[in-house]
Amino acid sequence: MSDPNAGYDVVILGGGSGGYASAFRAAELGMSVALVEKDKVGGTCLHRGCIPTKALLHAGEVADTARDSEDFGILAEFKGVDIEAVNKYKDGVVAKMYKGLQGLFKANKVEVINGTGKLVGPNTIEVDNGQTVTGRNIVLATGSYSKTLPGLEIDGERIITSEHALNLTELPNKAIVIGGGVIGAEFASAWKSLGVEVEIIEGLPRLIAAEDADSSKQLERAFRKRGIKFHTGKFFEKVERTASGVQVTIQGGTVVDGDLVLVAVGRGPVTDGCGYAEQGVQMDRGFVLTNEHLQTNLPNVYAVGDIVPGVQLAHRGFLQGIFVAEHIAGLNPPVIDEAGIPRVTFTEPEVASMGLNEDKAKERYGADKIKTVNYNLAGNGKSNILKTQGFVKLVAVEDGPIVGVHMVGARISEQIGEAELIYNWEGYASDVAQLIHMHPTQNEAIGEAAMALAGKPLHVHD
Ligand SMILES: Cc1cc2nc3c(=O)[nH]c(=O)nc-3n(C[C@H](O)[C@H](O)[C@H](O)COP(=O)(O)OP(=O)(O)OC[C@H]3O[C@@H](n4cnc5c(N)ncnc54)[C@H](O)[C@@H]3O)c2cc1C
């Protein structure tokens, strides 16, 4: 049984997206909250993930805009990349947001305890600064780390992870990216824009393999056009350091030389040494198992974020953190539908999706019950103005709701909001088709796709 005399209402281990969202919501709901963090609040997303990578990608976009300016009749000159200045810009964005976040901790009166914590009882976290913190409820939110594979020993110099890749003081001439998932594809895209030659090696049959097959195909086409090389369906065999860089041998014998290798083969849960297993928390391959209310098998011990199996995204952590605080407060929040969490790969072009991809929808509802429409951005005015190519694909159940939205195109991530509402509110194509969309925007492409699916297409070219 949990100890009713425990100190705080909620004690949170880890101050990343999941942990701090839980802390703020619990505090808003009038609970006393302590959060134990060994590094900086904000975690991976703010310091080593979402924010700095998107700043790097934006710097790349500016470089591409300068290079391509003549296509728009503007005579700008691309003179090169000052990586020190790019890093200063990126770090400046992070620093500003970090300051803002620290302010929110103060405003919410969440007590931050600096140190490495360990679960030593169902109500107790022991911190390496000597403090023992007790709470009526505990939230585990220790996040994730960059994984590697046997034969890929990270040296931080030639064989690196995303953390190192964000802090390069010199850009390589040629980078080899092992792993063509979201993180690998985003670095490949940013680096190419910044003038680096890039070659991706992906073991699965396609890049960003968790996405709809059409999205992968469109991204691959765009990458080919941009000169980003990739090998799919091929694992690396060995990686060797050479006098001037690295040499990667791919299955089948192809050898690729480069200045460095970025290892982007996924992220593992940070749970070793945290005391979870020792305290009897049910785990699976290092991940913490929970029920649909994000409760572990120990009473009053919850888990959120990347340590819980599922998509590893910051806003999933926010949502889970908020959910847990509300559950503790007895507000009975609705159970989270993982497919209702938006996903974006911020490459050029961007790939955004909601709900089920076509294959998964067919598995769930039967192939003959699924209807799809693939609206080509060639028919969309704003996309033509931007000179971007791509599509909006809707996956719907016959005489039923739209269960998947898949989009590719420059800036298309900004359209994810409507896709999210359509999916989560179980919108039918006819519901969306009757809402007119602002002209000329890329948002119209969602409306056009819905109109086509509802049998009344407007600007559709065969
Ligand atoms: C390169 C990259 C790009 C990404 N881009 C995006 C993106 O664009 N959009 C998106 O949604 N997601 C993105 N992500 C994923 C996102 O960063 C994670 O999903 C998110 O940070 C997970 O939040 P979390 O709270 O579970 O863990 P984390 O953010 O990892 O936070 C965990 C915290 O716990 C602390 N901690 C760990 N162990 C202990 C301990 N024993 N004691 C005390 N403190 C401890 C850590 O120091 C850390 O601060 C990206 C990730 C990477 C690596």
CATH architectural name of the largest domain = 3-Layer(bba) Sandwich
Number of strands: 24
| CATH C-level label of the largest domain | Alpha Beta
The chain-level mean pLDDT equals 96
Q: Structural class per helix/strand content?
A: alpha/beta
Helix percent reads 25-40%
Count of the domains? 3
The unique ligands bound to this protein are: flavin-adenine dinucleotide
Please summarize the sheet with the most strands: 7 strands, mixed
Distance between the termini: 65 Å
Count up the helices: 13
Strand content: 15-25%
- Overall spatial form: globular
Q: What Rg do the Cα atoms give?
A: 23 Å
CATH superfamily (homologous) name of the largest domain: FAD/NAD(P)-binding domain
Uncertain segments: none
CATH topology name of the largest domain: FAD/NAD(P)-binding domain
